[in-house]
Amino acid sequence: MEVHTKSVSLSENPYKERARMLISCPDGPGIVAAVSHFLHQHGANIVQSDQYTMDPAGGMFFMRIEFDLVELEQKLPGLEEQFKEVASKFEMNWRIHNVNRKKKMAIFVSKEDHCLVELIWQWQAGDLDGEIAMVVSNHPDMKEYVESFGIPYHIIPVTADTKKEAELRQLEVVGNDIDVIILARYMQIISPTFIQHYRNRIINIHHSFLPAFVGGKPYAQAYQRGVKIIGATAHYVTEELDGGPIIEQDVQRVSHRDDVRELKRIGRTIERVVLARAVKWHIEDRILVHENKTVVFN
Amino acid sequence: MEVHTKSVSLSENPYKERARMLISCPDGPGIVAAVSHFLHQHGANIVQSDQYTMDPAGGMFFMRIEFDLVELEQKLPGLEEQFKEVASKFEMNWRIHNVNRKKKMAIFVSKEDHCLVELIWQWQAGDLDGEIAMVVSNHPDMKEYVESFGIPYHIIPVTADTKKEAELRQLEVVGNDIDVIILARYMQIISPTFIQHYRNRIINIHHSFLPAFVGGKPYAQAYQRGVKIIGATAHYVTEELDGGPIIEQDVQRVSHRDDVRELKRIGRTIERVVLARAVKWHIEDRILVHENKTVVFN
Amino acid sequence: MEVHTKSVSLSENPYKERARMLISCPDGPGIVAAVSHFLHQHGANIVQSDQYTMDPAGGMFFMRIEFDLVELEQKLPGLEEQFKEVASKFEMNWRIHNVNRKKKMAIFVSKEDHCLVELIWQWQAGDLDGEIAMVVSNHPDMKEYVESFGIPYHIIPVTADTKKEAELRQLEVVGNDIDVIILARYMQIISPTFIQHYRNRIINIHHSFLPAFVGGKPYAQAYQRGVKIIGATAHYVTEELDGGPIIEQDVQRVSHRDDVRELKRIGRTIERVVLARAVKWHIEDRILVHENKTVVFN
Amino acid sequence: MEVHTKSVSLSENPYKERARMLISCPDGPGIVAAVSHFLHQHGANIVQSDQYTMDPAGGMFFMRIEFDLVELEQKLPGLEEQFKEVASKFEMNWRIHNVNRKKKMAIFVSKEDHCLVELIWQWQAGDLDGEIAMVVSNHPDMKEYVESFGIPYHIIPVTADTKKEAELRQLEVVGNDIDVIILARYMQIISPTFIQHYRNRIINIHHSFLPAFVGGKPYAQAYQRGVKIIGATAHYVTEELDGGPIIEQDVQRVSHRDDVRELKRIGRTIERVVLARAVKWHIEDRILVHENKTVVFN
């Protein structure tokens, strides 16, 4: 099957000299002037820029810049080297990303396939501008499907006894070259060790309700209280279970006519849409994390 | 000010022979046949009907019927008397409401006025087809505004010491002729005694988040975790705080740009829209309650 | 690939005695009583029912009933035969559908694949409770993909010269056993002859804007006027181009940041969601058509 | 009635040194650097900034900056004078607005009051950070209501014969000190002369449908085709009727159960919400107009 060629065969690339810069630092006067002056001096043309200051007095400053630079590939290392002086002055967290270097995704999945299928679909339609480098699963179910797209599929079973070894194997398989790990309904707890390796680079999706229902079987509880809206939340994974910085949320209306099975079906549809949006924004460097919160420039 | 005349001056009333019937009972064969046969026999013409069966096997049956009946006013008492036989056979909870008898609302409010103002606005625009019989408040703030619409305003202060007396006074003021009590941001706990008097007739509104935030200052917590959606829930009041059957919910998107103050502003807008919808549905006899859940035929 | 087994292997079928009845007729007294009495007499148990009367005085009456009947398969022909007397008395358009007889879909597609892929995805996830009997296309592009699911793929090229022959070939291939034809971005005009064969059984999807843009390149026009919302409309195909009864619509917010390419991408996402919902409702017998309007009981 | 005091009595004003700068100019290198360098030099601290480049190659550049400047009131004239050099170099359209100088609104209204009431409500709740300087109407209906808030109400009747004189009177009444004219369901055509006086400062609201319905009685047409979504569009008024740059749009779901009267009621609710948002963004200097399109930094 050759359906995924669209994502790699753009014959004319309007973004071949495009880079993205992300900055967060303590707020103070002169940051924008310094950065834009620096880029201008080095021949870069800013084509898009967003800034946000959280709490004007003594707060944090966030910035995302897209710029074009002739001969980007060659000049980027030098630019980064010279930017260190500016960055140091303002105590910046920063990175510059060459848009033409496709981001690498690793998708973790268990048995439920809806989120995985949506990501593959959006990727092969050219809507997710990255590379699905691998799928990792504790089950063999999706092997044939995933491999039909030419994507490697790693089966790493996880049991109570083998949890530690399984995680070592996962670290080995994922390696250090992956930009984002997507938990596409991966039903295993991720250990703090694993999270530290990929801080702010692991995206999880889970269902959400207004209000939240504590305890098991949330869909059954939601049905019993007759909720009128169900939703999903995509967030970065932190040590606090389902408590990390929220990237995106969305909801859909339901009614008393929707039984538990239908609520779950609708929930799946929201989950795949919300997760795909969060992944797209991560890949396009639209998300900055500060403490337990995201700034999303979309 | 005479701006509220629209709600009473419909020169031609297309609904002057219209009634609504609400039924809930254990499911079983022949209910619809029995009810529709009864109405047909008595000359009523069914113009709208909704049914819903919760859990086919041994579940509950819910029905809402709108019908027209010539000389409704005179015939209704007889119709109700004769329906008792049908109702008894199927163990029905039921009621019939003459659409021309306007429902009476009592609105409880503290200091925040947004929900009260929305209800009065929708009422004077003719969109809430009932009568605002009174406003009850523990504060005098909205007195002049409310009375300018010709609505009685009862100030009943509540303190820790006078809680009991205040409630007795409320029961006295509200009386037994009120169809629905609306807690339009009324910031006092309602006692079980009061709730029992008006079972499934007290509607409350509160903000809602995905996920819920436990503890104080929920808007501050929501801001700190960077929620992307905030919402509101309207529900019937039960003995469990904010745990009663949900009538309606809605949400709005927010972003990192919205500070706590802006989140609260958006929250107020959703609250007034959601509460007004819930009240409209209650007044139009669109809501049936079963256990901790509503069936809303809208 | 065996991913689509979920839709056929429900080991326990809770709906094995379930049927759906759709009725539309001139409004008048006694219809509900007659129908529910008839079903009760014949041992059917009504589990869900919706009615709607369009314009009370001299209007149209619409009804959808789900009922369970022991030994449905054997008894249905007799039931239908005997219902004719009731139907005739009230001049009904009616049909009864055995839920266990899966509806047959034929999907027409050209080169754009997003709607086709969504339908196949929802079908193999068990969310579209029918059978994709065939895909018909004027292009070979999706052949391998479609056939990998075991679905027949018919290539029928269409040119200005061969339009007539192509249509005859289509009529032959589709035949009389298909319940619904889905134009999943099929970019050829359907002739009145073809439409008459499948009256109210051809569903089309197209993008929609507020306001509409007359003339070519609607996305470019929408971009130039800075629309903030784009949408999609699913409708039954009639002789008036894109003018048939609307089944479902939905929208998504966009901003000035979305260029024409991104608007198109978002448009595709809405199209596939809206089309899939319309097909689901058609398959579940939730849609009644009257003149140029649908009544959707969902 | 003194209910509108909230908007003027903020005891502590966190924005007392805040200004907003709006720039649009042909895109080119160095703009951001030049502007941010200029502001930094003059002691201003940028607290929020948005940029957008429409079509990278030879396109337009748009920028909105919020900055704080000690002793803003005194320093602003000098700052503006000195900025002219920067502005001239890049051929900028620009303006700087002192946040503490409340924007002045003139609201035009005919007989339908829902948009007017919403604007007054949001204003008195402190959500519209401007001043309602006057209401102008061709009817006396809302006089008492408007004046109860201390707002001047000018009745200027318009007939076919007096159209010209009426407009001269309007120009006189509105004058040159008004920042935005809001057509809150003002049912008279505005002449090109009037539009030229207040280019990109007249906001209109009208209902919108997917698809649009040409000819009279759009709600009746929408009902007859069974639309599932209705909406509203707020736009700047240009010489092309209802064809000016779109500021904001929103929609709500409807169903076959909603008759023409109910569709209109829902339409009114969307209109008032959408108009209020557009006015809020105009007042907060969030809108830049280019050709027939808006860039909204919200």
From TrEMBL, chains A, B, C, D:
Keywords: Hydrolase, One-carbon metabolism, Purine biosynthesis. Residues 20-104 form the ACT domain. It holds the Pfam family ACT. It comes from Paenibacillus glacialis. This is Formyltetrahydrofolate deformylase. Pathway: Purine metabolism; IMP biosynthesis via de novo pathway; formate from 10-formyl-5,6,7,8-tetrahydrofolate: step 1/1. NCBIfam families: PRK06027.1, PurU. PROSITE patterns: ACT. The gene is purU. CDD domains: ACT_F4HF-DF, FMT_core_Formyl-FH4-Hydrolase_C. The keyword Hydrolase applies. Belongs to the PurU family. PANTHER family: FORMYLTETRAHYDROFOLATE DEFORMYLASE (PTHR42706), FORMYLTETRAHYDROFOLATE DEFORMYLASE 2, MITOCHONDRIAL (PTHR42706:SF1). One of its GO terms (molecular function) is formyltetrahydrofolate deformylase activity. SUPFAM superfamilies: ACT-like, Formyltransferase. Its EC number is 3.5.1.10. It catalyses: (6R)-10-formyltetrahydrofolate + H2O = (6S)-5,6,7,8-tetrahydrofolate + formate + H(+). The active site is at residue 242. Catalyzes the hydrolysis of 10-formyltetrahydrofolate (formyl-FH4) to formate and tetrahydrofolate (FH4). One of its GO terms (biological process) is one-carbon metabolic process.
